[in-house]
Amino acid sequence: MWKPNQPGSQTPPTPEPARPQPPAGAPAYDAAARAGSSASSTGEQATIGKSLVVKGELSGSESLYVDGKVEGAINLPGNRVTVGRNGQVAANIMAREIVVLGKVRGNCQASDRVDIRSEGSLTGDVVAARISIEDGAFFKGGIDIRKPGNETKGGSTSTSTSSSSSSSTPEPATAGSHS
Does the pTM exceed 0.90? Predict the structure, then answer.
């Protein structure tokens, strides 16, 4: 028979160990992507969870993982913005690196790269030094490839692209690789 005040049979509390830190709470598929590049200059990452809705401007000096809804603007230069599978973003995004696994409606400007994963969807224009669009991803908008350190219009290649890798018509994979 169970006695609530019996010494020695007390189990350790489970709520505290069940709370992972935000980087550990990121899905396993994102950990593989993080191995290739640093998460941010400070190594920290903020998380907007599934049930959160943010309206307005987000700015700061750490990387961001969005699994909820964001409307407005995201301005995190020098850091990574990851839109998770459940993430829905209706905002212009400015960051060092942008990874899309969910849905993004808005323009993306990255000083390094924009990565649209197979389950991701991006509707808007992209300005970046590099772009990657996996098979199965959806992208509709323009691409402006700019060489690193060149923020002016001179020396840039501009391409307008509408691509859905799930369609039966093959799209050229080298849309933005001309230097």
Answer: no
